[in-house]
Specification:
alpha/beta, FAD/NAD(P)-binding domain, 5-stranded parallel beta sheet, about 20% strand, globular, Pyr_nucl-diS_OxRdtase_dimer, NAD(P)H-quinone dehydrogenase, Pyr_nuc-diS_OxRdtase, flavoprotein, FAD
Length: about 500
């Protein structure tokens, strides 16, 4: 789940697939192992190109992205965001009786952050929250399955594995079936990484897939790992009313993201009362009589009611018969692929988190679509990671696209940059937004937009004009000269471009 925008060099324009079958072949047999975004998007493309398609999925169509990862986590975060927004009511002149009445019962001298946390906790029915989260995930899974079946895709529930380079064995509850294939796509995803000294039990020691089983809000949640997953859940549970301790082995949260954005978010976390323990590596976690104890590598012990282990993921590639079929794996266990999703074996492709590319649902879907277009002879453009927009769903959100500042410096690229605080934006002032900024990078002579960072509520929406600029090689003048609504948050994107106009020679 961590995202680092480190794009490769530009790739060529769309070309016909070299060595692929003739365009739009009828009767080609495609088997997709894994029903997540990479798998089901690939299946839809293959059907449109006339192939006979089978999707094999163990747990449910949509995969982890829909059932245990992206959809449920972002639904939970959206619920928490409602409380964060509601807290701004008094600043805007709106009195929240529920929050006020909860605070009046606290004794004098209690820290304001603790008052706020207690007030939010009294408002949250976590059992109902998680029931809604899981219901939405199941509904989305059912919608995707229905779409596949309407398109004529065969969906098999079971565990798929390769039996050589052109056959898939599917182990179902009712028995084993096989499907021969002209093309196979591996889209098996990844699972949460755990620590041998912190084995999840689903009750007190948890992975992010197990959080939705909780029926009561953790009184004190220790989050081990300050990457994207750790930061998102730490922010969400703190907003819901949990006392949160974020344990980071690095010197700041989100070590792979834009430094200014990460520092701003950490400051927001601390100002809201979250405890952030930097340069603190967790060595173990164990159950206690009434909670958990997390021992750090320096001997310190942090106690709490629950602990979330958020230290990344591992590719789901073991036991699939990949090496026996000749599919090359990397040292980390990911399937090695090129920019059109080909593996080392002709006719076998791979997409998504099992490949080690950016672990984003959007990237998995694009890889799957590219794979099928290439395999079935349609025109295809190789994957271009510099056009990928990524978002971290904290409060405020952090959205990035194109080249990061760290990458530009690392490769010695010349660039100009500007950063405009969101607090200057009139629309942001009206909405009570203070924390955030818009940052752009551009070529110092050509003026082409190289990348950007947006830190703001709904940054995932606000980054889109920058994504268009990067994808179509627009200049800062192109962006600056486009009309924006007044007042609007997107006005800050145009204003940043106007500032850069003066720096471009």
């Amino acid at each position: 789940m961590p995202t680092v925008n480190t794009p490769p060099e530009d790739t060529p324009a769309p070309v016909a697939a070299p060595g692929a079958p003739a365009a739009h072949p009828r009767g080609q047999r495609v088997v997709v192992v894994g029903g997540g975004p990479g798998g089901y998007e690939a299946a839809l493309v293959a059907r449109r190109l006339g192939a006979h398609v089978t999707v094999v999925e163990r747990h449910g169509v949509g995969g982890a992205a829909v059932l245990t990862d992206v959809v449920p986590s972002k639904t939970l975060i959206a619920t928490a965001e409602w409380l964060t927004t509601a807290e701004q009511g008094p600043e805007l002149g709106i009195r929240s009786e529920a929050l006020v009445s909860s605070e009046t019962g606290l004794e004098p001298g209690v820290d304001p952050a603790a008052r706020s946390s207690r007030a939010r906790r009294d408002l949250v029915d976590l059992k109902a929250v998680n029931a809604r989260v899981l219901a939405l995930a199941e509904a989305q899974s059912a919608d995707i399955r229905a779409r596949l079946e309407r398109e004529g895709v065969e969906v098999l529930t079971g565990r798929g594995r390769l039996d050589g380079p052109s056959r898939v064995v599917v182990e179902q509850e009712s028995g084993t079936v096989t499907r021969d294939a002209d093309t196979i796509l591996l889209a098996t995803g990844a699972t949460p990484r755990t620590l041998p000294t912190a084995v999840p039990d689903g009750e007190r020691i948890l992975t992010w897939t197990q959080l939705y089983r909780l029926t009561e809000l953790p009184e004190k949640l220790i989050v081990v790992g300050s990457g994207v997953t750790g930061a998102e859940f730490a922010g969400a549970y703190h907003a819901l009313g949990s006392d949160v301790v974020l344990v980071s082995s690095r010197d700041r949260v989100l070590p792979g993201e834009d430094m200014d954005a990460a520092e701003l978010l950490e400051g927001v976390f601390r100002s809201r009362g979250m405890t952030v323990m930097s340069r603190s590596r967790a060595a173990s976690a164990e159950r206690t009589a009434d909670g958990v104890a997390v021992t750090l590598s320096d001997g310190r012990v942090v106690t709490g009611s629950h602990v979330l282990i958020a230290v990344g993921g591992i590719p789901s590639t073991a036991g699939l018969g990949l090496e026996e079929a000749g599919v090359r794996l990397t040292e980390s266990g990911h399937v090695a692929v090129d920019k059109v999703s080909r593996t080392s074996v002709r006719g076998i492709y791979a997409a998504g988190d099992c490949t080690g590319m950016l672990p984003l649902a959007s990237v998995a879907a694009m890889q799957g679509r590219i794979a099928m277009s290439h395999a079935l002879g349609d025109a295809v453009a190789p994957l271009r990671l510099k056009q990928v927009a990524a978002n971290i769903f904290t409060a405020p959100e952090i959205a990035t696209v194109g080249y990061s500042e760290a990458r530009l410096r690392e490769q010695g690229s010349r660039y100009v940059t500007t950063m405009l605080p969101l607090a200057r934006n009139p629309r942001a002032k009206m909405l009570g937004m203070r924390d955030g900024f818009v940052k752009l990078f551009a070529h110092p002579e050509a003026g082409v937009v190289l990348g950007g960072v947006v830190v703001a509520p709904r940054a995932s929406e606000l980054v889109f004009p920058i994504t268009l600029a990067v994808a179509h090689r627009l200049t800062v003048d192109d962006v600056a000269d486009a009309f924006t609504v007044y007042p609007s948050l997107s006005g800050s994107v145009a204003e940043a471009a106007r500032v850069l106009h003066g720096q471009v020679r």
